[in-house]
Structure formats: C-alpha cells, structure tokens
Design brief:
Blueprint (H helix, E strand, L loop, with lengths): L11 H18 L1 H17 L12 E2 L4 E9 L2 E8 L6 E3 L4 E9 L16 E6 L3 E6 L5 E4 L6 E2 L4 E6 L2 E6 L16 E2 L5 E3 L2
Antiparallel strand pairs: 1-13, 2-3, 2-12, 3-11, 4-10, 5-6, 5-9, 6-7, 7-11, 8-10
C-alpha cells in the first residue's frame, strides 16, 4: 500500500543528517528555510540512489552512469572513461567478472574530473587480474568509497563502490581488447552494469 524507500549508497546518512537537523531547527525559527533544508535532505538521498541493474551475459560493461569522455589507446591497452555529473547515479560497478588483487587510495586535488589536470585528483584504483578500474574524485566529489578489498571475487555488474557527488570512472581494458572491440564512442550516455563498452 505504501511506496518503498529506494535503496541508497552506504553512508548516505553522513551527508543527509546535517540538512535534516537544520530543517528541524528552522521549522520553528524560520519555516521557509526549513523547507529548503528538507529539500536538500531529499536531494542528498536522491543523489545517492542505488537502483537495481541487469547486467548482460557477456561483454565488458560500463562501471558508471554518465557520458563516455575518453576512448584512447595507451601502449598496448585501451582506456575508456565515463564522466558522471550530479544528476547521474554514482554507484560504481565491476566492468567484468574477476578477482580484486589490490585497492589503492591516492590522495590529490579536486579539479574538474573531465579535464586533463584531473590526473592529479584524489582517486582509488581497483586492480583486477585482467583489468584496472580507477575511481576519480572531481570538483564537487570529495570522497571515493570502495566496497571491496584484495581477494574479493566480483561478478560482472556487481557493486564495488561509489563517489559522493560528481566524478569519473576509468577502465583500462584487458590486453586482448583493442580499438575494434570498443562498442561505445565519446559523448555517448551509458548505464553502469548494463551498457556494453567492449566486446569480442
């Protein structure tokens, strides 16, 4: 009879509690500001929404919702990057099945995630046996939250972390993939865990 509360990323409450408390305080002192604080609380929960996804049976899938910002060859490997803006779902998912070999946090700045200077931004690199995924914080994104650790085995499309507010996710594909295997182009909108970005 009642609508269910949508799933949200772990730790959402740490961001939502401040505007919610402020809404309670201002409900007595200044109701219009209380409404604004309540709207901010709803916005935080909406931003951290965690919808279910249905991964395809084959192919490398996008690790993030957003638009493809980079498709380039680096030596013998191909990199595909997806930029997430504030309206996209920010739950990140495993592009392919595999075992995590390491999770490394690198501190850094918070420049726009779509710029070349973002190479110096805060990031978390999740190494798999066959490929590498890097979650990069942006100007608004201030924290990267991985859910996985070395030794974890993930299925294609399984949740592995989230970034609070706008950001970027880069996939360095397995060595056997080349540019002819890419199934997306720069500017294309993709969905985490569902859109195939590369297939053989």
């Amino acid at each position: 009879m009642f609508p269910s509360i949508p799933s949200v990323a772990p730790g959402t409450w740490r961001y939502a509690r401040f505007p919610l408390v402020a809404a309670v305080v201002f409900a007595v002192l200044w109701p219009p500001l209380a409404l604004a604080c309540l709207a901010a609380t709803v916005g935080v929960y909406w931003f951290h929404r965690d919808p279910e996804r249905s991964p395809p049976p084959t192919g490398v899938v996008s690790p993030a919702d957003g638009r493809v910002s980079v498709v380039r060859t680096e030596g013998q490997r191909v990199r595909v990057a997806v930029f997430m803006n504030v309206t996209d779902v920010h739950i990140n998912r495993a592009p392919a099945a595999g075992t995590v070999t390491s999770v490394e946090h690198t501190p850094g700045g918070h420049l726009p995630a779509f710029s070349k200077k973002s190479d110096r931004n805060e990031r978390v690199t999740v190494e798999f046996e066959e490929y590498e995924l890097t979650l990069i914080a942006g100007t608004v994104a201030r924290r990267v939250y991985p859910y996985v650790a070395a030794g974890d085995e993930l299925d294609r499309g399984e949740r592995l972390g989230h970034i609070s507010f706008s950001s970027r996710a880069d996939v360095l594909l397995p060595p056997e993939y080349d540019r002819s295997d890419i199934r997306v182009e720069e500017g294309q909108h993709v969905r985490a865990g569902e859109t195939v970005i590369a297939a053989r």
